[in-house]
Fold this sequence. Notes:
Blueprint lengths: L1 H32 L16 H8 L1 H16 L3 E6 L5 E7 L7 E6 L10 H9 L3 E5 L18 H16 L3 E7 L1 H9 L8 E7 L5 H13 L6 H13 L8 H5 L6 E6 L8 H9 L5 E6 L7 H4 L1 H17 L1
Parallel strand pairs: 3-4, 3-5, 5-6, 6-7, 7-8
Antiparallel strand pairs: 1-2, 2-4
Helix pairs in contact: 1-8, 5-6
Amino acid sequence: MKLKKRLIRSGIAVVLVAAIGLGVAGNYFYNIAINRSQEGPELHGGGSSAVAASVLRTEEEQVKMAELMKWTGQQKFEIVEMKTYDGLKLKARFLKNKHSNGKAVILAHGYKGSSEQMPGITKYYYDLGYDILKPDARGHGMSEGNYIGYGWHERKDYVKWVHLLINEKKENAIFLHGFSMGAATVLMASGEKLPPEVKGIIEDSGYTTVKAELSHQLKYLYHIPAFPIMYITSFITKVRAGYTFGEASALNSVKKNKLPLFIIHGDKDDLVPTEMAHEIYDAATTKDKEIWIVHGAGHTEAYTISEEEYQKKMKKFLDHALEK
């Protein structure tokens, strides 16, 4: 009997130690991946590809970048604010086009990014006559929030940004265009009830679900399987941030989307695997969908290495969506 009791006590102790260890590990990964902080983790596949690096090193590209940054510095961005459904104050940069034609785009930045980024695509839309809204996502930049929603809670924020453009800026045709986490954000927003002023969705390098993307990172950064750490971290995220990794799904959202959808992804993307673009395309139920896999491009590098073709394809997509 004494031996049996000792074995039971030992078993209980092992379970408790394991549970505590998993809890500590789950909180550790929450603080790295979800909790707001100044520095983001070194993500697997997050560096520049050799192709992009060679393009950026050319004298022509450096001159172009200098001109772009000069143009950006000359623009007068208005800081606009809105309150989220859960009481956060979010801020965005708004650029009114001097030749405004009632069209606007909302540009969504990536993980640990900000509204100060995306200068090239900003100028591209401006040259087309668009007004541009660049929000800082919750937990980023000027916006409030102590956690990152990976697009899930942000999807509701973007619906509110759309209404702000309609009600306060009098826009009558709006596109949502996101990169990486921002791409997942606009995909998730596409499944919400959007007003008819929203004409189309453009996603560049978006992931399918938060669970799939974080599991991908966990595998390559820490060489451990998703189970059970990912499930523990997801539970902690539900308690601390109000969502689970499984429910944060761009795949489920695009099944509800009826708007024109343009999917862009590099075939050398190691941060968000290229196959995710095909999964999103296959899941999308809209009849008006297009996918462009850019040869040689790493994560969000399509515009860098294929700028001219990117602009031509974008113009075609925008014009087509506006005609519908």
